[in-house]
């Protein structure tokens, strides 16, 4: 038996038909920070991400470019895997594709259980549907017959017989569950939003499509004419990634006892905190532990990012110019944890110069240069254990508070050098100067531990320089 306590965390699974965007980069970086935090606190962490590959959009896009659908999704899934290195994501992350054979059979097993429990039925219906949102749209939600979020997609008119999930049966169970779990959705204002939505009453939703019209999907068990559509396929990944249903040990450890935590954007509030939870209840499976909802990125002044305005920032742009850890710091420190925030290259540049070039970069260089030239003995220096010094704000997913407190310590160490002036003292009282530099290096060792979840590569680099008592051969962060 593993002695460590288990912990499970997942991102949502993006569709693979577009280049990875900066919103998903924020989601996976923030989930990674929490996964690293939990690991450093001594937990056995299962961290999941992947790609959602069965939607109508993908099928339509593959047809448009004249490519076989599987070849098309394979090509795009590779692009998403590249994110791991680019964003400094933990090596041991699990990457699930909804076209994996095991996932497909798990989705079918999940369907069968819900059907046996009486929550799936078939009916003829007509709706207007946005394949961008993967949601039904009422006339009042459309502008000029288009979805305002996806004006480039044509609204589909669906008139066919499909299977439905009896979502309406879960109004009371969901409200009871929320009442018993007062921190189920973070932040509170999103929790309030979903409660209000549920209180207004729930409508059953469609979970299949006619195979003759849209063949790209997991076969509905016992019905050759239909394929699963979106939710009973995509959402089941959160447990199929654990090997459910066959691998009951892993499921027991990480889903039942691992406080399963789901990170997502605000456009996923309903899917993660209501639809998926009702589906779990319908299959007699335990609910998630917590749903964390990020805001969106905007352009300058809160304007929506769009290609036509030309204010789209990609993760590549930031990483190419400033490095992976800069992007990780930016989405932790400078971006609101839960509200919408502007993301511009100007803001990235300002953060980079103030916090990395002048802040930590300058401190590392000054203090280690003095340690080396004054021959300061730091053999007695002990790096603290992360678990002993971790900031409690992690448990509220408030990385801005965490990072601001680290930069306050960096500022204190800078001030200590300015106040004690070891570069002057050394000429008259070298022991006093050495003691002052020793004090600063001790603080820096602590900072390198505190930085571990947020900027792991930088943290390692600083720790290594301290251990060798070596000034960096080139600045940690080059001025731009
Ligand atoms: Zn839409």
Give a short synopsis of this structure.
By secondary structure, the chain is an alpha/beta fold. The protein has 19 helices and 15 strands.
Please characterize this protein's 3D structure.
- This protein has 480 residues and is α/β, with parallel strands linked by helices.
- The protein has 2 domains: 6-294, 3-Layer(aba) Sandwich (Rossmann fold), CATH 3.40.50.620; 344-468, Isoleucyl-tRNA Synthetase, Domain 1 (Orthogonal Bundle).
- 48% of the residues lie in helices and 15% in strands.
- It has 19 helices and 15 strands.
- The protein has helices at residues 22-40, 56-64, 69-81, 83-86, 101-116, 171-180, 188-199, 231-234, 237-240, 248-256, 269-282, 315-322, 324-334, 345-373, 386-389, 399-420, 422-428, 430-450, 456-468; strands at residues 6-10, 44-51, 94-97, 120-130, 135-137, 156-165, 185-186, 205-206, 208-210, 219-220, 223-228, 261-265, 290-294, 297-298, 341-342.
- Strand 10 and strand 11 form a beta hairpin.
- It is elongated.
- Bound molecules: zinc ion (ZN).
- Zinc ion binds next to loops.
- Residues 130, 132-133, 147, 149-150 line the site of zinc ion.
């Amino acid at each position: 038996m593993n002695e460590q306590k288990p912990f499970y965390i997942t991102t949502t699974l993006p569709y693979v038909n577009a280049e990875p965007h900066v919103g998903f980069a924020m989601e996976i970086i923030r989930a990674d920070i929490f996964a690293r935090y939990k690991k450093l606190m001594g937990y056995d962490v299962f961290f999941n991400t992947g790609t959602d590959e069965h939607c109508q959009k993908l099928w339509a896009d593959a047809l448009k470019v004249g490519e076989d659908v599987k070849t098309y999704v394979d090509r795009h899934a590779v692009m998403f895997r590249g994110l791991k290195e680019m964003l400094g994501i933990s090596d041991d992350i699990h990457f699930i594709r909804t076209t994996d054979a095991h996932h497909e059979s798990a989705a079918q097993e999940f369907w069968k259980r819900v059907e046996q429990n009486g929550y799936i039925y078939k009916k003829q219906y007509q709706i207007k549907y946005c394949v961008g949102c993967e949601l039904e749209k009422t006339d009042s939600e459309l502008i000029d017959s288009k979805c305002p979020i996806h004006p480039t997609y044509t609204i589909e008119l669906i008139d066919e017989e499909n299977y439905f999930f009896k979502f309406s049966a879960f109004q009371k169970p969901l409200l009871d569950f929320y009442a018993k779990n007062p921190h189920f959705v973070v932040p509170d204002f999103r929790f309030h939003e979903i409660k209000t939505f549920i209180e207004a009453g729930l409508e059953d939703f469609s979970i299949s499509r006619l195979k003759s019209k849209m063949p790209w999907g997991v076969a509905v068990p016992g019905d050759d004419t239909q394929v699963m559509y979106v939710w009973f396929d995509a959402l089941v990944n959160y447990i199929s990634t654990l090997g459910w249903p066959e691998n009951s040990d892993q499921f027991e450890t990480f889903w039942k006892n691992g406080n399963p935590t789901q990170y997502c954007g605000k456009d996923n509030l309903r899917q993660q905190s209501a639809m998926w939870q009702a589906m779990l209840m319908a299959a007699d499976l335990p609910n998630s532990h917590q749903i964390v909802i990020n805001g969106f990125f905007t352009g300058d002044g809160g304007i929506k990012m769009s290609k036509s305005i030309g204010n789209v920032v990609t993760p590549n742009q930031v990483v190419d110019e400033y490095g992976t850890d800069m992007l990780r710091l930016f989405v932790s420190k400078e971006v609101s944890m839960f509200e919408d925030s502007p993301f511009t290259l100007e803001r990235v540049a300002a953060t980079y110069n103030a916090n990395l070039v002048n802040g930590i970069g300058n401190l590392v260089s000054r203090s280690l240069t003095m340690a080396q030239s004054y021959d300061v003995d730091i053999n007695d220096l002990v790096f603290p254990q992360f678990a002993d010094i971790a900031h409690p704000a992690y448990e509220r997913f408030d990385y801005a508070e965490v990072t601001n407190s680290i930069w306050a310590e960096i500022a204190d160490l800078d001030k200590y050098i300015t106040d004690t002036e070891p570069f002057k003292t050394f000429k008259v009282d070298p022991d006093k100067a050495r003691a002052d530099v020793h004090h600063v290096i001790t603080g820096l060792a602590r900072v390198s531990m505190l930085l571990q979840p947020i900027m792991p590569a930088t943290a390692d680099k600083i720790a290594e320089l301290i251990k060798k008592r070596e000034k960096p051969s080139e600045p940690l962060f080059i001025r731009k």
